[in-house]
Amino acid sequence: MRYAPAILVGRFVRLAARLRKRGGGSAVPGLIVNRIAPGFLAHTLNSFPDGLIIITGSSGKSTTTKMLVGILRDHGVRVFTNPSTANISQGLTSALLERVRLNGRIDADVAVLEMDEGHGALIAPQLNPHTVILTNVMTDQIDRFHQPEQVAAMLARIAARASTTVVLNADDGLLMDIVTTLSPECAVSPYGVTAQVLEATPRGLGYAVQANDRPQTGTIVHSVAGREAQISAYGDAVAITLPARGVHYAVDAAAAIAGARAVLGERFDLAVAAMSIGTLAPVFARGEITEVRGIPIEFVLVQNPASFQLNVDELPGDLDQILFAVGSDVRDPSYFWPVDASRLRRVRSVSGSKAHEIALQLLYQGVHIDEITTDLPGALDRFLALPTPAHGVKTVIFSADSMRRTRAHLGLV
Fold first, then answer.
1. What is the pTM of this model?
2. What DSSP string runs through 210-261?
3. Which residues pair with 297 in a beta bridge?
4. C-beta neighbour count of 109 within 10 angstroms
5. With 60 as the cut, is the pLDDT of residue 23 above it?
6. Burial 123-153 (b: 16+ CB within 10 A, else e)
7. What's the chain's average pLDDT?
8. pLDDT grade, residue 260 (50/70/90)?
């Protein structure tokens, strides 16, 4: 009962925050509990009977986490996990407050947690994860992480805490360098794509450093066509329907399969994993199509140049209703200039606080723009009021800040 007072304080703060603002209070309770009981987070995360699994890297964390959670639950495992937006220390603590008992324990077999690279590296010395899954290292958040090697060093600190297995992307050269730093007692489970899949992706997979050698064993993506993929796990192959289009989602599926195999051992069933992924709904804004005011809309989140390019390349080429919104999270929009977005052809509205900057890029690339405005709520309302598209569905592409504002305005809490 050591942490009972802190838990009660955190729950009171959470209730007060939610009474003040619908959907609010996601981080503040965790921030306060971490201040008054700094040992609570590590104590609770290290207390799960079957251990802690950490998923971290530049991109793909949320989708990989959701896939892995689904696979484990379909194998009969009781899983605690965190929302994709709660991947920093105060967010993790707030997520724990939702279910933790006053004795500091949660009624689940295992914890599967997405973690921000920077915050994960800071709290890693206090954690004892069973398995660590590393997704990739991209040129990402340059205001926080000035170079990819800095991110790789953070991921190495997290991976060093794994007691049993490190699952890593064998196509990422910076991640493969981490292998030499791991304890000999820690198994390495690689995943990646075949040379044929890589050749079919002419712009590459977006990693800061592409590994020279293809993985010969492990979990391998053999083919991708839209949402259909062929994946093998140590020789056993299966067809999988992905939650969204693109090679990057197939790579996330391979990571989740490799992670599930590491956690479950002989209990792992590849057919169950394929079924689980095939019935999974996309994580919000990761190729998700949902109804808003009775209108189907596809939401596409772009967080760095690599995810921007990969997602734009996977969009149908004949879309005629696109809204593009970039907000304050992109401090220097020239960060996105290496991306070729010319295939968008026409964007009905460019919005967000950085609307004019991102519009300049699109105009230089030959994209026709109907409207440029920093008024995102107004732009969303006008966009939704447009007639039914002649081709495809209404599509909203946005950065993280504009995603949060879009969710709030449309009531997608």
1. 0.82
2. B-SS--SSSEEEEEEETTEEEEEETTEEEEEE-SSSSHHHHHHHHHHHHHHH
3. 290, 394
4. 16
5. no
6. bbeebebbbbbbbbbbbbbeeebeebeebbb
7. 85
8. very high
Contact of 78 with 71, CB cutoff 8 Å: no
Neighbours of 175 (CB within 10 A): 25
Instruction: Fill in the amino acid letter for 6.
Output: A
3-state secondary structure of 70: helix
Q: What is the 3-state secondary structure (H, E, C) of 84-144?
A: CCCCCHHHHHHHHHCCCCCCCCCCCCEEEEECCHHHHHHHHHHCCCCEEEECCCCCCCCCC
In degrees rounded to 5, what are phi and psi of residue 290? -135, 165
Average pLDDT rounded to a whole number, residues 11-40: 64
Task: Please tell me whether residue 168 adopts helix, strand or coil conformation.
Answer: strand
12 or 375: whose pLDDT is higher? 375
Residue 24 predicted with pLDDT over 60: no
Per-residue tokens: 377: 């709520």
Chain centroid to Cα 267, Å, comes to 26
Number of C-beta neighbours around residue 289 at 10 A: 14
Report the interhelical angle of 400-410 vs 376-384 (nearest 10°): 60
Give the closest residue to 400 by CA, choosing from 316, 317, 292, 308. 308
Write the CB contacts of 385 (distance below 8 Å, at least 6 apart in sequence): none
Q: What is d(CA 239, CA 275) in angstroms, rounded to the nearest whole number?
A: 9
The more confident residue out of 144 and 125 is 125
pLDDT tens digits, 313-351: 888 888 889 999 999 888 888 888 888 999 899 999 999
Closest CA to 120 of 38, 25, 42, 26: 42
Residue 169, pLDDT > 90, answer yes
Contact 296, 393 (CB under 8 A): yes
Non-local CB neighbours of 111 within 8 Å, separated by 6+ positions: 45, 48, 51, 52, 53, 79, 80, 81
Calpha distance 381→101 (Å, rounded): 43
DSSP β-bridge partners for residue 398: 301, 325
Whether the Cβ atoms of residue 354 and residue 332 lie closer than 8 Å to each other: no
- Is residue 166 a contact partner of residue 129, using CB atoms and an 8 Å limit? no
Average pLDDT over residues 178-207: 88
What's the pLDDT score for residue 160? 93
